[in-house]
Amino acid sequence: MIKAKKSLGQNFLEDRNIIKKIIDTTVIRDETILEIGPGTGNLTEYILKKNPKELFVIEKDNNLTLILEQKFKDKIKIINDDILKVNEKEITKDKLIVFGNLPYNISTEILCKWIINLNNELFWFKSLILMFQKEVADRIISKMNSSHYGRLSVLANWRLRIEKVFDIKPSCFYPKPKVDSSLLIFKPKKSFLKIKDAKNLEKITRVFFNHRRKMIKKPYNFLFDGNQRIQEKLNLDLSLRPQNLNIETYCNLAKEYENL
């Protein structure tokens, strides 16, 4: 039995029925696949059975990399690196289908990195099929005016269509996490509000949601120096809370911030 490393947020998915359900969410045959954090290769094995054109895996753990090499030989291409340091656009010219049982401790960081680094027109992936802690998944898919709605909801739903597929119990993993997980599928949106630099939307949402229970007057004044023209242009009520603003408003705030 491989010992999971807590420092790398490792929880290996072992339930064969759940693995099969994940694999069945998309067509794999002749597609180029990227798997994040394959662990001991349980999901990898099932992906290969579906005959992908090519399968890349990113695994940071050196010991697991050796196990994967022995187990799959030249059937997969292993990138032994930290996912946060990898430039996914350089892996292949093909558009990828991405599977990931993301490490809980950096899952939101990975998703934010991918969204912020997206080119305004081009996506390097066809779809992302990702597992998150259920609580994080709820934040990603939550709508305006709900208590879970926040920075992550705005960033993710700005560029991506998101579907929750199912929840996964702790008993499906080794070691068992203390919480449920959820599987989400992300697909590129064809139509979205263009922003010069997504880092500006990340900054706007971070500042606004830093005080999520307070009125937006303070973060607005901090970012825009109380600019009344912008407030009137966007028809902003500064007595609202951050969760009362829709994604379009946050995008327009980011655009105004870029024009300052």
Helix-strand layout with pairing:
Elements: E1 12-13, H1 16-23, E2 32-36, H2 42-49, E3 54-58, H3 62-72, E4 77-79, E5 96-101, H4 107-116, E6 125-133, H5 134-141, H6 151-159, E7 160-168, E8 173-174, E9 181-188, H7 198-209, H8 217-224, H9 228-233, H10 247-259
Parallel strand pairs: 2-3, 2-5, 3-4, 5-6
Antiparallel strand pairs: 1-8, 6-9, 7-9
Helix pairs in contact: 1-2, 4-6, 6-10, 7-10
Question: Can you offer a commentary on this structure?
Answer:
The chain is an alpha/beta fold and 260 residues long. The chain folds into two domains: 6-188, Vaccinia Virus protein VP39 (Rossmann fold, 3-Layer(aba) Sandwich), CATH 3.40.50.150; 198-259, rRNA adenine dimethylase, C-terminal domain (Helicase, Ruva Protein, domain 3). It has ten helices and nine strands. It has a seven-stranded mixed β-sheet with strand order 4-3-2-5-6-9-7. Strands 1-8 form a two-stranded antiparallel ribbon. Helix 6 (151-159) packs across helix 10 (247-259). The longest helix is centred in the C-terminal third of the chain and has 13 residues, at 247-259. It is elongated and about 65 Å long.
